[in-house]
């Protein structure tokens, strides 16, 4: 038998002014199952809650309906109150007679009438409520960070600082990411390596952090608190434990013509290599695409010189399996491929370079040892022609583009305005004899000390900023580059003979992001950036529970913002890892195995991958045992949207707290 | 339903918990009026609305049914409203074939910030349904007391 109590709130005059609360309370008594009704000035007050609690005990209520403000406001309050009185907190329903009744209707009669109907619907629903207990799942106290750039490093350091184990998976032979390739950072102009490499060393030395370099995530299963991840450790043909990073092998390697990806192909490296001097881990890697020994079986010089005996040509890719409680995607970015941008002659002239290539050219550890030279003179740096005198920067190459050219992006890459100002300023400071032009659509400098920085480039360093786009870069016979551009302010066509053209290329998420997103069942936008759970209020969480976002994987951002987000993601991860048990939302889907026909319709619509199928034994009416394929929902993963309940053709799938019967009862009560 | 000799429609509105229900709350907070004929049922996501619920409402005498969800791309559950959009397009065209006019059924995207849009939508919808009058087509007379 139902014993329902109905409590009608006046909310001062907020409700009582347009709803006859006493009439609503009286009408409630006409409903079958209602044994008690009352109205009170402020139901959410201490006295109001005591009234609810006392009535639950006194009348042995099995369900409570509170006619008051929106459940978004006080549902939790009344659920807690009910739980204190010994009633399951999910046996409470709210009829929203304030926001959705008294506040929008002026007429007492229609207001009261509607309030009665809403009360009836809530009573009809609460009669079908079942006591629910939130599920508890244990938490694996270890985190995984995918990507070892500055975002991943900062996240890992913060998690480790809180005392939890954390693994970094980095596909390159070293952690550090894009920031290792950058020369100086805006707006303070401190050297990127100087601030990054100590953090890389901290990672290596921290006992709580384990770095899987030259490794990739192979598969992810499980759910928040209990992820199982397979990590592929690519064969580097070096025993990481033995290698001391002395570099003897690199010295002796005869294969010298391998494009050096760290310097973006501006110079060459050996087939056995350490990407850069401060690499972490400082362990050599053999590039199997170029190694003579691995390709032809002859050579083997490196193993003869290696005193540590670290070289192992027979090494294979290995797969390891680890368990994690939370995962952070910090997969980072790459500049877009601009070979389709023919007008800038990037593929035709070595003197047309991207901004990242310029970073390497200006870096003391770069191919020209920090002397700015035209890339066409890299092998002949002392030639008087090697020094560029006129340099043209082109902004928004591939960013903010409305044309549907392959590779161009609609979004603003955010960092280009600032790094171009930095490049222009650094060049003018070091080489006052140069003329530097910057062509821009807009200069966007929001950020602390950013606009001041840009103005310094213009006012103090005399960089020529010209509003307008470059239409064409044409290589000339004398090796110069003819830059044709329009100045939109003076409305003139400009022809500049430049020695060097630098393109501020758009940045895009790393190519691996899409497959990692699929593995994590984390949603992504059309540009392959990870989507946040809420763009304003949950910016570092993915909609998939237990998956967090850090750095450019979520959207273009500069280093300070990346570090901020990385620490925020770490805080969220720590919030999960400190718990021994995770409490779930009990309003989740569940499948009636007797009705399920194993069609997989629910599995296909589930955005969280919460539904799995398994073969189960069922006793038949004739006492034989049949094996059927049936769906089961993992309550820890299910978020309770209910998409599966509608997709299910046999009606086996239902949602606790919002069951088919409950909603139908509400419809019936409203349409009575 | 006849009230004082004047026809008042019975409208069932299904609102998703995250956007539209909050949008309806905001309409209330801002005291934006819309007719009391609209009765809101809270569902976690617009994709929770089984076509069965819509049919049931018409069967029990509702004159119009409206579904409100988050804007496409903004679904709290990432993709729920896309299912709603497809399911309801099919259902509504079938209902139209049965004689439940297209104006009696509607899917609208209302965000939690669009209280004004919620009120406006409801005003328009009620007006459209009122013009059509009572829904007799699917009403199951056995349900009438």
What labels describe this entry?
heterodimer, A: alpha/beta, Rossmann fold, FAD/NAD(P)-binding domain, five-stranded parallel β-sheet, B: 145 residues, alpha/beta, four-stranded parallel β-sheet, 6 strands
Describe the fold and architecture.
The complex is a heterodimer of chains A (672) and B (145). Chain A is α/β, with parallel strands linked by helices and 672 residues long. Chain A folds into five domains: 4-126, Rossmann fold; 136-227 and 321-332 and 513-580, 3-Layer(bba) Sandwich (FAD/NAD(P)-binding domain), CATH 3.50.50.60; 235-316, Alpha-Beta Plaits, CATH 3.30.70; 334-508, FAD/NAD(P)-binding domain; 589-656, Alpha-Beta Plaits (2-Layer Sandwich). Chain A contains 18 helices and 34 strands. In chain A, the strands form twelve sheets. Chain A has a five-stranded parallel beta sheet, sandwiched between helices. The longest helix of chain A is centred in the first third of the chain and has 19 residues, at 108-126. Chain B has 145 residues and is α/β, with parallel strands linked by helices. Chain B has one domain (2-131): 3-Layer(aba) Sandwich (Rossmann fold), CATH 3.40.50. In chain B, 39% of the residues lie in helices and 19% in strands. Chain B has helices spanning 20-29, 51-59, 80-98, 115-132; strands at 2-3, 6-7, 11-16, 38-43, 64-69, 105-109. In chain B, α1 crosses α4 (115-132). The A-B interface holds A 70-72, 96, 98-101, 103-107, 110-111, 113-114, 117-118, 121, 523, 531, 543, 587, 605, 607, 639-643, 645-647, 655, 658, 660, 663-664, 666-668, 670-672 and B 10, 12, 17, 21-22, 24-29, 31-34, 36, 39-45, 47-53, 56-57, 60-62, 76-80, 83, 87, 119, 145.
